Sequence to fold (315 residues):
Amino acid sequence: MILVTGATGFIGRHLVERLLSEGYRVRCLLSEDKQKHLPWSQPPEIITGNLLDEEVLFKAATGVYTIIHLESGQWWGRPRDLERIEVVGTRNLIAAARAARVGRIIIVSHLGASSSSGYTLMRIKGQVEEQVRASGLAYTIIRSGVVFGEDDAFVNHIAMMLRSNPFVFLMPGRGEVVLHPLYISDLIEAIVRSLSLIDTVDTTLEIGGPEYITVEDLIRTVMRVSRTRRLILAVPPYLLRALAAVYSRIFPRSLVTAQWLDLLATNRTAQLSNTFNYFGIRPRRFEDTLLTYMPGRRYGWPMLRYVLRRRPRGI
Fold:
């Protein structure tokens, strides 16, 4: 039995579908409001609850040999939400896993994660990593570049922002920061293969796609593929953070959050060969993959639906 937290998130829903298709027994920890529209063709076993309920966590972990911990609030949460969900939630999950004698925990982190980072998201991800390493459980930490896909909350948000302003796009800094995007299917393949690869136990693995790309080149690529031309204006990151704070007070969710900007703050890359060396995967190129789903796609209505959707409850 495999327990997956954050199963209805971007990575989680793809992972659970893949695990079920390969015959794994899967259990998901979900709050009641996340059970209304389950995204899978065949439903897994569901435990109702969240990471803050220790009794429910022990029930969810009982009989499990591997936990894949994906619960996160990085796309919608404020710093206090990240502390509550990721730091406190992971601490509770580890305690339940130890009590239930779970064999292994696998988490997905970010390239650049460090408990000493000056950026909130990277600092909290670093703290989560330290908790997992000190847990006494066998572990695998997969540090990934920015994950993108047809239903992601990173590249699609750039496309939405392009549609929201018919004239300009506000780019943080001069766009010189280097990223290492990884396609969602390649990340899912890496997680699934890590279940059976002994060499991935008690290790921190850094992976990304087959190419590096600057923030400016990434924005121009999205503009080119989505056929949306805008004037790019370089804006000091602190001004965008101030705008993001204002947006978060006006809308239930904001396309640009402090955590979104944290991902674009510093260079975040791994060795290009790591994904193949660790997992035998040849990852897909960024622009080639966008061309399979982005041209002709409409982003106006999805943008409105996203910013007006309430924040999750009961996590």
Observations:
- The longest strand covers residues 104-110.
